Amino acid sequence: xxxxxxxxxxxxxxxxxxxxxxxxxxxxxxxxxxxxxxxxxxxxxxxxxxxxxxxxxxxxxxxxxxxxxxxxxxxxxxxxxxxxxxxxxxxxxxxxxxxxxxxxxxxxxxxxxxxxxxxxxxxxxxxxxxxxxxxxxxxxxxxxxxxxxxxxxxxxxxxxxxxxxxxxxxxxxxxxxxxxxxxxxxxxxxxxxxxxxxxxxxxxxxxxxxxxxxxxxxxxxxxxxxxxxxxxxxxxxxxxxxxxxxxxxxxxxxxxxxxxxxxxxxxxxxxxxxxxxxxxxxxxxxxxxxxxxxxxxxxxxxxxxxxxxxxxxxxxxxxxxxxxxxxxxxxxxxxxxxxxxxxxxxxxxxxxxxxxxxxxxxxxxxxxxxxxxxxxxxxxxxxxxxxxxxxxxxxxxxxxxxxxxxxxxxxxxxxxxxxxxxxxxxxxxxxxxxxxxxxxxxxxxxxxxxxxxxxxxxxxxxxxxxxxxxxxxxxxxxxxxxxxxxxxxxxxxxxxxxxxxxxxxxxxxxxxxxxxxxxxxxxxxxxxxxxxxxxxxxxxxxxxxxxxxxxxxxxxxxxxxxxxxxxxxxxxxxxxxxxxxxxxxxxxxxxxxxxxxxxxxxxxxxxxxxxxxxxxxxxx
Length: 620
Hints:
Residues 64-140, 142-214, 514-581 form the ResB-like domain. The strands form eight sheets. Strands 31-30-3-2-1-34-33-32 form an eight-stranded antiparallel β-sheet, with no helix packed on it. It has a five-stranded mixed β-sheet with strand order 10-11-21-22-23, with helices on one face. By secondary structure, the chain is an alpha+beta fold. The chain has six domains: 6-135, no CATH class; 136-167 and 596-620; 168-211 and 540-594, no CATH class; 216-259 and 491-536, no CATH class; 262-327 and 433-489, no CATH class; 329-430, no CATH class. Strand 18 and strand 19 form a beta hairpin.
């Protein structure tokens, strides 16, 4: 028989592959006609086999056919690489025309490696490889490597084909405490409305996410003008003392706080007033407070309304002065053209107000409100959350009266009424206690206890402490000339509220700025040409893992920690750590697969390795 050329095998095998494509088209469009086409292919093969069995065998076992099929398989692989595989329809329409997308679907080119035509092509190649291999029969010692290499390719393809046809993929949406004995099937990475039943259950006991250590950076965005987009940012490590060059400017990290907070501290000030730091100590915590010997800032209420403490630099001279100190007070600060004055007033009394007016202190309410039915002023309660004083201005010349409410919390609010003589008023309410003790404590360590307008007792502080049943007050620091200062510090070593202070220097000018990682908007400089942000560079998790238990027939048979590279394997199913939800710490996404051909593929690679070693060892 005359040997056929390589071109003959390319032509005939090409015609066969075109028929495979025709079968794929019929399968996707007209299923009954497809079955007829498949029967016709089988009958044609039987016809040629009966007519000339040797010619069929020679054709299928030809090395030239192998060359042609390998070339066509390579072309198919290239097609599968260039054409998008297993993505959503919207993505295909973004890259291809509608007509080309329909063509792709007709021949299943969007899933090349699972298409009918590709599996038939690979099957034909496998038959050719087997027949070519067994042409070397019988097997000799030197031929063992050759046989293993060729058979391994067949075994690998066989295993891959089994996985493609009978493999299962799915997904489980897990929450801690849940047990699942089924999973949602997926195809082309999309969830199907189908479930696959398991003959066992899997329970999620715990889920945890491990993050990389925080790495906070100052991100500096720059642009040439405000009508252009910002360029790629500078990423500057928020390390105190570091100086960075940004274009023609410099940025220095002055301070970095992991957990930014502020606290009031007492500092010496030659222009200040007498002050004291007081610590309220219980068994579990300590609270500090600063108080000054000035109206309104000299007193503080004890826990649960047990009493009131008033700080004075000097001890009251007598009982009358102590009782006066303990009384509640109404302080008016009056600013007029002719001068300013501060009055400590009492209800029902009249005082000189301005050049043309007197003022009568008529009424007081601790929590100002207006009754909606009667329209009258009432107090919502005894808590002084909105203290207000009712004043009556009396004209010195004609006795004309003007009424006015003044508010401590809203000094500018006047119900649309003008204060006489163009003056302004500020009102301060200094509270006291009824039926509860008032303790007047001085820097001289003296304590005067006043109850309901009478001095009850006097005593000395011991160890600077005023002791009660469940707590004590410690007068920690006295200073005759002091003021309040806000001190910045990190409340903890955890990154709860990261804040950075920087110095920006450009064109001989400098700006000191402070911004937080919690800021939703950037801090801008140079009329919007520079934007600064503080962000953590390490926002992605380092690892996330699910602690699961396998329950088979009501018994806990296996515990496992599923991680990205450590799946749970049970009864041929693989459970992979796939996803998580940063907003839900109890959620874990688990992908499931069953790959019946995987061990056959492993066997094929093992045979390929052994065959390669033997082929090298027994040189031919």
